[in-house]
Specification:
Layout (H helix, E strand, L loop, with lengths): L11 H23 L9 H16 L3 H32 L3 H7 L2 H11 L2 H19 L2
Helix pairs in contact: 1-2, 1-3, 2-3, 2-6, 3-4, 3-5, 3-6
């Protein structure tokens, strides 16, 4: 019988790649789910944060490194979703397709539209998502 192997910690590269992919996927999912909601779309990030935290724990990224990567993933999801929300608003206002708007809209316009539509509740939801994500990754 062989002794049990102790898994070696994940490399920084795998944490960064996983955080990026999970953040982009969560941001796209958040935008897709929020399109049908009239109110409360900001707090979907809390649910997605708990899913991201559970996902990082399931992958074995526990501890500080896992919490840092999970929080980075939530922040990526927030920024990407705000970019997508801005693209949806611009496409609706100008009558363009969303695909064309995503490829032609520059970051300056996206920043202006996103910052005009961000409220205090969005940042409260982001803070709650960060706390929930950390709790899911760090719990014993």
């Amino acid at each position: 019988m062989q002794p049990a192997r102790i898994p070696k910690p994940a490399s920084l590269w795998s944490c960064v790649a996983t955080a990026t992919i999970a953040g982009l996927a969560a941001g796209a999912l958040w935008c897709l789910l929020a399109l049908d909601l009239q109110r409360g779309a900001a707090f979907l990030i809390v649910l997605l944060g708990s899913a991201i935290g559970t996902y990082f724990r399931w992958l074995g990224f526990a501890g500080r490194r896992g919490a840092f990567c999970a929080v980075a993933s939530v922040l990526i999801a927030f920024v990407y979703a705000q970019y997508l929300f801005a693209a949806v608003r611009v496409a609706q206002m100008l009558g363009f397709s969303l695909r064309a708007t995503l490829f032609k809209m520059d970051w300056g316009l996206a920043w202006q539209v996103a910052s005009a539509n961000l409220a205090t509740w969005d940042f409260v939801a982001l803070a709650a998502a960060v706390v929930v994500t950390c709790w899911f990754v760090l719990r014993k």
